[in-house]
């Protein structure tokens, strides 16, 4: 296994934004993981775990430490359930499920990896990762041991898990339930989901939905609680800052149209979120994780710094 130095991070994210990492390694086996973690500890390096890079806005300065890109892709049936390692792409998981007459067609609306979906409780209308996850195998960086934990261990909430509060654990794999289905009918559903994505989700370099939807309330019934609706009704579509631009198809999709930087994208997002707050009296929070060069989340609202 190679540990590379000074590697650009932009090609490993769907935004294509980010400077260089001091060190970078691709992980395919448990032995790889233990070796890299030992290397990082010997050099006192920070660690950053990267999946498909679909929900990340890296710093223009890159990352001062070691980035581990998860490329572990083992898939297997465990009885009627599906076990998938964290580097498995959602599209690969859906194809494997279909082969075994299991219907996960709706998952095709999600980008990225199964590990990222578990870590961030990714979801589509009517489903979140926590709804079907049974258990996961995690790696404890402190003890250097692999542990099996139930789904409740993650303390899930909307687009959030306990892993957002700690860097002490890494998801290696997860086992989930999956409804049975006919492969021919599942394929029809897959095509319908992909057609929906083409119709509603803009192509180009983006991280998917930039902001989280707000809880549905009497004052914010559907669809007004949707970040896209709030942004569209403040005139966000096609707004830009440098090469950072809001899609003309969906106001919650922010795109890199060329050489956009984190600075460009963050400034545009903050400006539009402030306009939403001024008009509707509500605050949007980013679904995209925005990192500084040390792997810390950058506060989106200025007063969060205090």
Outline of the structure:
The protein is 25% helix and 25% strand. A five-stranded antiparallel sheet has the order 6-7-12-10-11. Strands 1-2-5-3 form a four-stranded mixed sheet, covered by helices on one side. A four-stranded antiparallel sheet has the order 13-16-15-14. It contains seven helices and 17 strands.
In words, what does this structure look like?
The chain has 306 residues and is α+β, with helices and mostly antiparallel strands. Among the domains are: 4-70, Uridine Diphospho-n-acetylenolpyruvylglucosamine Reductase, domain 2 (2-Layer Sandwich), CATH 3.30.43; 75-184, Uridine Diphospho-n-acetylenolpyruvylglucosamine Reductase, domain 3 (2-Layer Sandwich). The protein contains 7 helices and 17 strands. Strand 10 and strand 11 form a beta hairpin.
* Secondary-structure element pattern, one letter each: EEHEEEEEHHEEHEEEHEHEEEHE
What gyration radius follows from the Cα positions, in whole Å?
19 Å
Please give the order of strands in the largest beta sheet: 6-7-12-10-11
Overall mean confidence score, pLDDT: 93
Please report the first level of CATH classification, the CATH class of the domain at 75-184.
Answer: Alpha Beta
Helical content class:
25-40%
CATH architecture of the domain at 75-184: 2-Layer Sandwich
Q: What is the CATH fold-level name of the domain at 75-184?
A: Uridine Diphospho-n-acetylenolpyruvylglucosamine Reductase, domain 3
Proportion in β-strands: 25-35%
* Ends apart, CA distance between termini: 42 Å
- Report on the biggest sheet: 5 strands, antiparallel
Number of extended strands = 17
Q: What's the tally of helices?
A: 7
Low-confidence stretches: none
Shape: globular
Q: Which structural category do the helix and sheet elements fall into?
A: alpha+beta
